[in-house]
Every structure is written in C-alpha cells, then in structure tokens.
Amino acid sequence: PSLYVPAATVWSEGTLTGLPGRPERELLAGLGRAVRLYPELDRALRVPRPSELTLDTAGAFGFLGQAAPLLQAAGFGVQLPRWAGRTRLGLKLTTRTKAQTAAAAQGFGMRELVDFRIDLAVGDETISEAELEELARLKVPLVRVRGQWVELDDRQLKAALKAVEGARTGEASAADLLRHVVRADDDELPLLEVDADGVLGDLLSGQAERRLTPLATPAGLDATLRPYQERGLAWLSFLSELGLGGVLADDMGLGKTITTLALLVHERAETPTLLVCPMSLVGNWQREAARFAPGLRVYVHHGSGRDAAEIEDADLVITTYGTAQRDLETLRRREWRRVVCDEAQAIKNSGTLQARAVRSIPTCTRLALTGTPVENHLAELWSIMEFANPGLLGPRTRFRTRFQEPIEARQDEQAARALRRATGPFILRRLKTDKSIISDLPEKLEIKEWCPLTTEQATLYQAVVDDMLARIDDSEGIERRGLVLSAMARLKQVCNHPAHLLKDGSRLSGRSGKLARLEQLSEEILAEGEKALLFTQYAEFGTMLQPYLAQRLDATVLWLHGGLPKKTRDRLVDRFQNDDEPMLFVLSLKAAGVGLNLTAAGHVVHVDRWWNPAVEDQATDRAFRIGQRRNVQVRKLICAGTLEERVDEMIERKKALAERVVGAGEDWLTDLSTGELREVFRLTAEGVS
User: Fold this and answer.
1) Which of 95, 160, 320, 371 is the right S-S partner for 252, CB 3.0 to 4.6 Å?
2) Domain Helicase ATP-binding spans what residues (predicted)?
C-alpha cells in the first residue's frame, strides 16, 4: 500500500483524501478475513467501530512469532516494530592484548595470552547477573530491558544462566579466542559483539586489509604494485606472521599472481613455497616469476624428468594437482614455508584424492587463490577454508547444518551474516567493478541478445521435449537425472543449430536464428576494426563455427580448444594479442576459461550458456582485466521462448543469494518435478521466427 491510515481515522467524520469508496467497509471486510487466521481479532470486532486490539506480553509474543507470519503469507500488510526479531539476549566478548600494539611484526603470535571478559548483552547494552536473574524470575516471553523489548525463551535463559556460572574473565590464547568467535553458535546464546584491540581486533574486524599499513613494492620485484595490491601484500604478510592461512579471492585480472610473488620476495624465507596449480598454468607461473621476480629460484616439479633433490635449492616449487597427488610421499618428507593452491576450485570437493593430498602436506601456512570461492554450493567454501585453516569452521557435518542448509534451502540471512563473520577475517575479495579498487579499468557493458528459432529448430526442439517427458515418467533416481541432463544438452544444441544436434555435416546458412545473429554481430565488430572472443561450451560447435565464419565474413577466425598442444595455444594467443588486424577468436569455454590474457578483445560473446555465472564470468575476464584500455561489451545469446530464456530468468532470481555466498550450477534442474520440467522446457510461440 502507498498510504497508511490509523483505523480510528477511518471511523472519523468526513471523507479521507486518497481513499476512494467506503473505507470503513474495506476495513471491516479485511478484518473479517483476517480473524480466520488470527482468532484473537474477534475481541476487537465486538465493538461497532473496531480500531485497536490490546495484547499482554504473552499475546504480543504469540502475535509476533505465529500470527504475523501467517497474515503476511496470506497477503495482509503487517507493520512490525523495528526491534521485532532483532534485539536478542546474547554475549559480548571483550579482549585486550598484554602489550598495546597492533603490529604483528613486533612479535605477537596466535599463542600469545590475551585478557578477555564475557558479558551478557541485550542488543548493544550489557546487563548484570542480577538483571538476568530477574528476567528468569518473570517467566514471560517478551520483556523490556534498558528501554528495549526482547523476546526470550526458556532455552536462551538456561543458556545464559549456564554462561554466568563459567569463567567470565581471564586469560586465553589469541588462537582459542579466534576459534570461539568463528564457531560461536547463533542458536541459543549468540555472540552479539566483539570488542578486540591490537592484532586480534584487526583480524576479527574483517577489515585488516584496510587497517594495515600498505607494504611498498619490495626490492627485487620488477614491477610497481598498485595501491590495492600493496594492501593485499600487507594482509598476506599479516596472516603469515600469525601462522594463519588465507584465501585471496580477488576478481580475475586484479593480479593475484603478482601479489603472491611479491609476498615471496618480501619474505625471503629460508624454506621454499610449494605452489600447486592446473597444468595449463604451470608455464604462466614460470614466466611471471622470471619476469617479475628474477631473484627467486624456481623449480618446476612436473614431468618424467622431475628430481626431488632440486627442491632443496628452490625458493618456489611449482607442481600440478595431479603430480602433487602422485608424489605425495615425496612432498610430505619436508615442511614447507607455505603451500599455495592456485585456481583453488580444484579442491572444492573436499573428499577428492587431490584435495586430501594438498591438505596433508606439512606447512607453516597456506594460501588459496581463486576468483570464485563458491561456484555451485557452500560445501566448496568449506573445503577451501579447510585447506587454508584446517578445523577453523568445524566438521563438515556441523557446517552443513549450521550454514549450508539454512542459507541454500531457506535463504537465511542470519546464517549468511554468521558465515561472513566467520570467514571474513580470512578471505580478501576485491572486485574490478569497484572504482575505489582500480579506477583506470574501463567499463563492462552486459547485453542479452534474444534470438528466435527457425521453424526447423522449433520442430526439433519440440521433438526432444516430447521424447524426454515420455521417458522420465517411468524413470527415477540417477536414470531420471541422466535423462534430464541429456535432454538439456540436446536442447542447447538445437538452440545453437540443427546441424549441431544432427551431426550430419549439413549446411549451416539460414537454419539458425542464433547463428544469424552471431553473424550480424561479428560483421559489425569487424567493420569497426575491433576484435571479439566467441565462447562456446561445445568443441564440436566451435569446429563448425570457425570455417563457416571465416568464409562468410572473409576474416581471420582463430579457434582454441582443449585438444591443441601448448605451443599452438600460445601461438594463437600471441597472434590475437599482437596482430593489428580485426579478427574473431572462437574459444572452448572450459579450455580457455582460465589462465589466458586476451585484452586485445573489446567484445565477448557467449554463444551458448553454461548456466553457471561463475564460469561465464571467468571466461569474460579473459578480456576484462588489468591491461584492458577499451570498454568491453559482453553479449549473451539467448533463444527466446525456450528453456534458455526460462533458466536465465531463474538465475536472475537467484542472483541475490549468489552474490552473498552461493553460486549456481545446472544440476539443480534435474531435481524439478515433471510438471516443473514441462514448464521450463516448453516452447512458446514468441520463440519461433
């Protein structure tokens, strides 16, 4: 509603401006409907002109917890007091370091003893033990404390009384207090506030990167760090001095590699750092280290000629996830200064052999590098954090019940806040779109291009849908999921081109609305003398596109996929980056999604959709990264009236949660009911040209 009017005003004499008709009748009719959900309203309706209902504290508590949600769900507007559900009984932790210093470099470690005090609190007010006992004596669910209304229940009061029986002041190690804060339960007696000074205060604030004095570019690094990279270096050094691990989760293109190399140069440690990365990035790390940190002794532990004896003379040992798993016993024979996992999504599944392998390598500290700490679900975040700081978030089962299920299934904002508080001190994430981070990066413009199906495409599309729906009625479990995933893949292929589905080598021209739009866009880009990246998740479709576009547009069209040897890949990238002629670069999404710098492109086109925003953003970031001087236009081709449009809508609706802590894959589609699948997959008339 746009106008709120007290009920008493409705019964006053005269006409109310802005209320058409007979507002008193509307009021009575609404109250008559509401009384079915909240019978207590009947008392208010016993007078001719109902305007209020007086409740005692028990009644108010019942209204807030039970009636209000029911009324809201039924479509009634319910205005609640600002304190409702927010002001809680909980704990406040105050810590003070022995020496009033916040400089980790002056010797403070996580084993240092810290003075602490635990107080009971209501909202932002501390309360005494006597006040708590009075609350327990009253035995009412809604009480007024220090001018604030607080909802209480027996569980909270029992937890509070138990808390005051224990030690409320004393000494504890900084590490123990840190674990207490991270693991503090929100169920019965939440930790409402932490007041910490010194190093612990910097860490728990989650703002250590902003509080710390930036570290200047270290001597021996042949580069000049940007201000945000100097702050990142200070943050990494700060955690390392405390013996803590971290997750550097900056956007792709912000320079996680050079910041890590700067840390190694800054430390000049006596023991080596082990860096584990995908095979495709080994050469990149080797080249970047030689370019920016020529003083580092680098050894690549990979391939048939690898020799573990060379580790002894290295500052940085680079290996792959596969080699780390195979040579685990060799790598475990020594303690490393640091283990770094680049593209840490590779260990997002905690139970895999390679994830367990890298977690078992002895080290003083750990660092995870990833632009996407969460791609599909929160268990991935737990796995990466378990690598960086083992045990900090507790067991996997506890994490699932406390965070993962409430956030993913119920969009529980309180659980999301608690997770941010628990992980915030150990995750540093900066975005390219934040102009306070990097002001000289150009703009990124995202555009959705709607493409119609041809009649041939529409016929094939409907045939695939009908076939799937007929087959899933008699299937369940893994078989049903397989049928749905297979149908999705076939429908994506239909949306690309009939020949992509049929695989019959037939002609491409004039049979696909999406290909026609791609031709138009490519022609315009080339006419402007610019370059574009064209991403597809299907290698077979890329193989079809490359010669077709080259012939139709009389232009250079490069094609990079996972089957190419490394030298060929490097030659293609070098040509695209350095040749002046306008050209197109068709790329397999998985083969080119990470590790490539393609800033010569001013345009990115996602020909087909991966339906995982994190994967698509990784691909886009091949062009939209440091070194880019032109605005980047990103286009996503979507076939209107098909599952591509409806899944795009679903992803947009889920983005609010995804941007907080959750990503989105496409496996969730397989769990939809048959009726829901029919709705998602159905072809509408507006989708056919």
Assistant:
1) 371
2) 237-391
